[in-house]
Design a protein that fits this description.
The protein folds into two domains: about 180 residues, no CATH class; about 60 residues, no CATH class. About 50% of the residues lie in helices and about 15% in strands. The strands form two sheets. It has a four-stranded mixed β-sheet with strand order 2-3-1-7, sandwiched between helices. Strand 5 and strand 6 form a beta hairpin. This is DUF2812 domain-containing protein.
């Protein structure tokens, strides 16, 4: 059932004109999610035909009027918010133009194999109501929107705007094999966030802390709840690491 569902979904996406590379990446991500959650894909996402119709419009809106260039290279990748601008500009130098950000927060990028241009990027933090005003302010300098994720808005412009012929790329490197770029700061942030949430939930369960409804706020009981929450997360990790070392 699972394989048949995703095969059908892929067929519908191709029928809507979604590029083959993007179809494969999207279906792989959705299949991995379904496998991890153990959910039936049709119950989780709905009928394949309807789900494909929901996913496809964003790709069609991002494509030029004549449709995507079948000869263009496509690369879909992601990076954490600490390093996304670094990688955007690094690969922009290699001719990768971000056309949009998909529903999973990935950069959908293409490169002209015949005359690739070098691109530069910037990221702005802005409220949704001010998106249009920001785009209008940046437009005179050649910046155009290329996607958004939460409160981040991304803009691109070809380096030919500021560097003329130097903005063209003579020899494009191979398409990167890597698709995910998460750094140490991202993982450190996730660890801190998990510890905080564990401590908060433990404090609520024990009836201490500002969200528990009890009489204590940030006193000794709450501190004890925080430490207990950290222990809930840290101890299993330490035990697992110790067992691995013994092996």
């Amino acid at each position: 059932m699972t394989t048949a569902y995703f095969d059908e979904l892929a067929g519908h996406l191709r029928g809507h004109g979604v590029p083959a590379e993007e179809v494969a990446a999207t279906v792989d991500d959705l299949a991995a999610y379904a496998a991890e959650s153990g959910a039936d894909p049709e119950e989780e996402f709905g009928p394949a035909a309807g789900f494909a119709a929901t996913l496809a419009p964003a790709a069609q809106e991002a494509a030029p009027e004549g449709g995507p260039d079948p000869a263009a290279e496509t690369w879909v990748w992601t990076a954490d918010a600490f390093r996304d601008r670094e990688y955007l500009n690094r690969y922009g130098e290699q001719g990768w133009e971000v056309e949009r950000i998909d529903h999973l927060g990935r950069f959908v990028s293409r490169r002209d194999p015949e005359r690739p241009l070098r691109w530069e990027y910037r990221r702005e933090t802005v409220l949704p109501a001010k998106h249009d005003a920001l785009a209008e302010r940046l437009a005179p300098d050649g910046w155009e929107p290329c996607g958004g994720w939460m409160y981040f808005q991304y803009f691109k412009r070809p380096k030919a705007v500021s560097e003329g012929l130097a903005g063209e790329l003579d020899d494009a490197p191979a398409t990167p094999a890597r698709r995910v770029f998460f750094g140490r700061r991202f993982y450190a942030f996730m660890v801190v966030w998990v510890l905080y949430m564990a401590a908060l939930i433990t404090g609520i369960v024990l009836g201490v802390g500002p969200l528990s409804g009890g009489d204590h706020e940030f006193g000794p009981d709450f501190v004890g709840g925080v430490l207990a929450g950290i222990a809930v997360v840290v101890l299993p990790v330490l035990i697992t690491l110790r067992r691995r070392r013994r092996r």
